[in-house]
Amino acid sequence: MSQHLSAIALETAQAVSFEAPIRSVPSSRLVPRPRLVAELLAGQPRLRLLCAPAGYGKSTLIRECLEQSDAQGRCVHLDLAGKPLPLQKLCARIAEQLDGAPDGSQALLEFLERSNAPLRVVLDDYPAEADAELDAWIDHLLVHSRAPLQLWVGSRQRPQWNLPRLLLDGELLELGSDALAFSRGEFDDIVALLSPATSVSTREEVWQRTLGWCAGVRLLLGAQGRASQSSAVWLGDYLERELLSRLSEDERRLLGGLAHLPRFSANFCAQLWDDLDARGLFQRLLQSQSFFQPLDRDGEWYRLLPAVAHVLQDRAATVDVNRLRLAACRLLSALRFTDEAIDLALDAGHLDVAVNYMSRLSPSWLLGGQHLMAFLDWRKRLPVRLLESTPRLVALNACALLMASRLSEAQTCLTHLGHFLPQPTADLNRCLLAAWQALHGTIQGLLGSCDSAREHCQSALAQLGESDRHVSFLCHSTLARLAMSAGETAQAQQILMDAVEQARRHGCLASEALVNSERICLMILCGEITLAELLLQENLALLQADGNHHQMLHGRLLAMQGKLHLQRGDLDACERAMQEALQHIQNCGSPLLHALTGLAEVASCRGDQQQAFRYLQDAERRLQCANVQETSYRGVLNLQSLSILVRQNKWEQALTMARSIEDYLRGPTARLNGMLVPSMMVRNQVLMARAEIGLGRVRDAEKRLQMTQKECLRLNFRGLLNRVRQTLEQLEQAQPEAAQPGESRHVPAGGSFNLLVGEAKAAQPARSHSEGGSGSSLKKREELTSREVSVLELLAEGLSNQEIGERLYISTNTVKAHTKHINHKLGVTRRTQAVVRAKAMGVLS
After folding, report:
1. Mean pLDDT value across the chain
2. Which pLDDT does position 502 carry in this prediction?
3. Which residue segments constitute the domains of the chain, with CATH numbers given?
């Protein structure tokens, strides 16, 4: 079907400029932060320490807490402005605010200990290089003194006090930059206040650059609405005053160099700057909260906050920067941070070095982090002659294009492997041909050439060696999809289990999670919702335990989690999962498509059809901008559009569209759509039946649903089968009277009849509504599970226990256990009696 989504969707609101004027809001406190206020006011710790770089709202938060506190007693508030202060001067300032207090350090300490009235002392912007005598006096006051005092401290560096002792005694509450940064919800609130017209893409860009840094968010969002200077200039001025002015010349030089590096450590700095005490300078910058962000749990590697790095990058000479980048990329490559080494080599203009590093990567590397998007970006910056300089690079490029659903480009790229044939040895020749077949077979499968795909993938698996095992997972996935589309679900399950075993034996978590995502799809298709959820949670836990390095896979699993929430009818949980998935997958083909269509379904279920269509339009635009093959998403988008039309009760329009989709699915791309979404045709038939019911064509709907039921049985789509059965049951309930010959039965469109039930809710077997003891007996007994129904249907076909186990990929003992449960629930003793009873009750057709 060639009709584009825009032809059937609602018009989106006119785009507005990011530079729209901001609203007038108070400057000191834009967004209340009750979660932090509650945490700081809970309990009575002796020291509340807010330690973070400039601009994290420490002073504002302390003031907000003191205003909301109902604590009795006096309060002393001192702004130290980050400057060293002698002990005697501090004591004098405290005494000045306490009537009758002596100003000497020892006398003041004794005065505080004799006092019965509680006292709160606020030391705002405590200096990084505090006077040693002052540190010792405050440490004694906190740890050893019995003065009824609570200390509130805002600082850019952890003070030299006995903090571990306070922590052990339960007297310390410390908040760092992670806690003080805006949450995503708070960020969205402040965007709505400062610049409500900000586009989604710009909003995401500001978030990724600031990661909740309060001052950075406000300056990047609000500067252009207040003055002619750009936000970068405002941010630069802010950092000059609040950060750079407090640093020595050597510290400024080191920090300016670090701004150009994707990661750094103390040892790394010592190797790059041998003319400086780089290790010591690094430690001082780290302690003084210079916007360093940890990259690992061990506290070894750091990076600069992106917004700060972006500003500082303009302050170094180009020649020095390129020399630094090239030296750093060599060190990073030796430490196996290959992707970051490639980025630095490209930034330094050394394209040949970048390509040399790229040739060391494997296809499984593309599944980690944001590696796929990074690789596609490198392709834009490199000439074709370098990208295709080795067979390994050609195969890697083809894999990346394939994973991004840019199938035509992948196919074109793959043809260049022929330039490297023949290879010097027979083994190399065989391996290269096998790699070509694996990639070519996968592409053919995604293009709908099923026979060719099967032939090439099977041949490749027979020839691929240990070094090419990453490519073999593509073959397993393709063959499993082919089996699913043909209804051979047991075979698909076996293929995927073989692939999972191979991935585990080679310690490839990325490949294991990728194959398991296919297994989850298969389980959902077969109605095994509980097993799908268990496997999903298991794989999310595995990725988390590995440090969540595989962002694209994480996003794919989150999108599936959202789908499972949707089937249970939990719209809020579905929306959260889909939104989180979008943060991981960016513009990666299939996961992006399913996340945005999931959000469209949520909006549609809530009655917001305009927003539903906007999600679909956003999906279409982003996929087109990413050069994703149209055949990879057109059917899914149109099917989701049809679902929205059905919810709007636009029956004529829905029926016309359903017929167009049917023609499209049965046309030249029929096998392709079966590969991408095996259940697409069945889903379209159910929606078409709903449209027919809405138009009063109940006979046509019944006939269509009965044919669809047979198709689900043939393909072993148990989840959809139960849905169709329940649909027929609902239809019978809505219009039980038999129609006279020649009459057309009509079901009112405005009634409570609903075909769009969740599959999880429809997963229970349909029950007979015929009167008699059998029907009522089943209602009294425990219902059959979907797995038990599957076993029962195979028993009805006359299969043995061993044959049933092979078909469902379960053990013979498990089959026997299911049979025993079936007999008990149906009130029989033999399998033949169970089949007869099940048919009489309507469980079996």
Report:
1. 81
2. 87
3. 34-180 (3.40.50.300), 184-242 (no CATH), 244-316 (1.10.10), 369-549 (1.25.40.10), 773-841 (1.10.10.10)
